[in-house]
Amino acid sequence: MRLGGGGGGGWRSVIQAEDERPRLTRELLLRVLRYGRPYRLQIVGMLALILIVSGLNLLNPLIVRDLIDRAIPSGDVNRLIFLASMLLVLPVVRGLISVVQRRLNASVGEGVIFDLRVALYEHLERMSLRFFTHTKVGELMSRLNNDVIGAQNAISNTIISILTNIVQAVAVLAVMFTLEWRLTLISIVILPLFLLAASRMATRLRDIARENMSANAQMNAMMNETLNIGGVLLVKLFGRVEEETRRFEARAKAVKDIGVRRAVTGASFFVIIGLLSAVGSALVYGIGGYLVMQNAFTVGTIVAFGAYLGSLYSALQSLANAPVEFATSVVSFERVFEVLDLPLEIAEKPDPVRLKEIRGELVFENVTFRYAADESNLLSDVRRFGQMDQITAALSGEVPEEEEEEEPEAEVAASQARSLALEDISFTVQPGELVALVGPSGAGKTTLTYLIPRLYDPDEGRICLDGYDLRDLSLDDLARQVGMVTQETHLFHDTVRTNLLYARPDATQEEIEEAARAANIHDFIAGLPHGYNTVVGERGYRLSGGEKQRLAIARVILKNPRVLVFDEATSSLDSQSEALIQEALKRVMQGRTTIVIAHRLSTILAADQILVMNRGRIVERGTHDELLQLDGLYAHLYHTQFSREPGL
User: Fold this and answer.
1) How many structural domains does the chain have?
2) Are residues 158 and 269 part of one domain?
């Protein structure tokens, strides 16, 4: 446990009890050290500078001793000037060395952060959609930020601090024994009092710190829920501004009160530590003064000894908590490695088939798919030492009761009341054909479309593009050839131009405008305050649903894929937006193999084939007229939904 230091950082580490110490393994330690290998020259340089600085720190008390014992009593002015000059020169030299050491330290730390973040981000981007549907965004952000910084601390701060304090403690003890072995033993005897005081205060400080983290977590959860766009909108619509302000005031007051208790308890702890330090100093100066009177050693020796005493206590106090600090920092690597070690569910073969041009034939062969998650592909719930990770209800603040964990096999999609999302799906789409998917909500239509760009892989069966299994193709080639417009259009908080260029970064302004005209959105964009340089807001919130969908269509047109997948979710749009989208779709579908989740009769009538889905299976297939003659599910859907469209 850390026994000294200033500010709030000194006592933070004492809140970690013995039962909280993370366990280290040899394999983890070796893997951590490998991340420092690219920076071994900088690390060696830092170690050399540590030795130099530690040696320079030993000189100051010896210079003061010489001043008191020799220069002043003998009236040696030249010696006095030289020693006084050295007291000025040494801090300057130490300062210059510390700047170089800090530069080396920063280059190692920031380099490790860079390496880890890039590796993590790249790996996460390659994970399947299933991973993201089972993982909290906050947990991913914590791995990329908190854990990466913790890993950096292990290499650039914690290890360096431990080495520095070890060198300092050994060197100071050696000099102290050389100066006066009796006073050195007295100095060491006082150390158990520090440990006793720290252990007495640790539990109290830890409990207060936990309360503080819990109160902060509840306050932050409420801010996150009520200060985003959706939350603010809900608060205003229900007229709950005053109630939410009062609720926030109560949570903020809890944080304030705990903060005051934390500060007072921490200050009391430092008072106790200060008193114990004073006891050690009093014993040293008292006994040392008596020995000076007995001519056992000089006044300069006891003055120098007192200076060394402070350095020794500081180093030993830091080293007392070193195991916890080191383990806590290094275990951040463990959480980073957990992400890097997650297997890629949607992996590309070592030597994939490369397709530059495709015809667009799409075949589903006995495809079965379930949403059950393989636990080996997911992140574990972790407890970060010294942090409050307990999840509470954002507004009520209640802790949900723990539920029994279900077996992975029993886990299904929220919209599916069955274990299989898709079962034995088989159909063929010829190049250039339009296939409409029709069925009740939760039938598996969206799930089917997600398999085409390999957002998921089927559990059984296979999907072929131009005769090649999708799993044999290059992921980049597949992404280029398949364009998808989802029901919920996602736009980045950036300009219209940037959002469109996401499909093809090298597109010219003329090509962008051509795609926008084809999607019936160019005139709208041109009328915006800054045209194509207008920022659309977070997730495109400044645009209407129809405008966002037309931007998404323009983005797909700019991409120019051979296979188009589209969720024709137009039911919530006004008639003008719907008409513009339908007209744009006719243009974009021409000559492309198209799979559409159809919500409009006009799309169904234009389809070469209609697949009627229910409970994850294709229950009917054929043209509009053929399906009406069957008088089955499609006929029921037609009479309850499609036949009521205006103008039909």
Assistant:
1) 3
2) no
